[in-house]
Design a protein that fits this description.
binds pyridoxal-5'-phosphate; 12 helices; Rossmann fold; 2 domains; about 375 residues; about 15% strand; six-stranded mixed β-sheet; alpha/beta; 10 strands
Length: about 375
Amino acid sequence: MNHQCLFGSPIRLRWDAGSEWQLVRAIVASMPDGATLRKRAATMWRFAEALPVPHPGALSMGEGMTPLVVAPGRSAAFKVDYLMPTGSFKDRGTVVLIAAALQAGARRVVADSSGNAGTAIAAYAARARIGCEVYVPAATSSAKLSQLAAYGATVREVAGSREQTAAAAAEAASDPGVFYASHVYNPFFFHGTKTYVLELWEQCGGRLPATLVLPVGNGTLLLGVYLGCRELLAQDLMPRLVAVQASACAPLARAWADGSAHPAEVAGLDTIAEGVAIARPVRGAQILAAIAATQGTVVSVSDEQILGAYRDLAAAGLYVEPTSAVCWAALLAGLVDLEPDSAHERVVLPLCGSGLKTKPYFDGAVS
Ligand SMILES: Cc1ncc(COP(=O)(O)O)c(C=O)c1O
């Protein structure tokens, strides 16, 4: 039941029709028109024609169709993906992944995660009434650990790096009857995250913004977005993808600066942006290729800039986890081109994870 590529390189997400997975196809011709879409429920399942599994019934918690909110003082908008059932964008990929696991007859799933993917997988496994074991690095925030426990998952803390955590999960997943619910290796996850861009396409009136700024660790959102753009638009008018990493752990930004097609070797220092602290992204070369194909770029921001952006967002009523502030930090630092006369929503960035999921970074003065 495990992925054939579990111990090797990840399955190549192929962008062309006729791939061995038969999952990638030009969908624009089969996309419902505006009038049809308006009659459908405001969830990501309104794009059923583009998804590789049918609506999973009660497994769905109405995930997706998150709002666009204009960013304060800039020609940009936030897509507020932390308003999801488990508080992060990972629900998009997870609901598709668990639906696929159920189709495959899984009774138990094993996953590894720095937090948000694990909590999403635990929640959807609970709804599916199947067993769930999540391997997390020992440094995972206590709020995410409590959330995992609340969903009834067995949590295995691994004293080591994110890579060691993944290796421990992969080993556990080799037991018979266990489905390795990997959000990084399994292509079904990316077909879920692509709904981010399908929703944007609808919300922007059947077109896409010129620039999409995205946080990148393992690239599950960025590659899903790229997949969605390719399926929607074929080669035409691709939005520029600007990937943002934390400077303390920036293998892709370093590779980009060096003109390399493969992630750079980095030490992977601690950062408050725990969700993007991935020193060795297994799909790194694919991420770099996708960004290059859109004439995009990869930038990085310091923890000080991330903290400033996190506070700035909270001052605008948007309480996110620090990882979710990296894109806004890049905008504030002038690392993303904003055309001076551009209309709102020419640049869109996601707010991926709720601030309730990490330790507080504010010294609360209660009077
Ligand atoms: C809140 C948040 N934003 C961004 C990311 C980065 O996603 P990815 O590792 O898929 O690039 C994560 C990953 O866990 C996350 O939790």
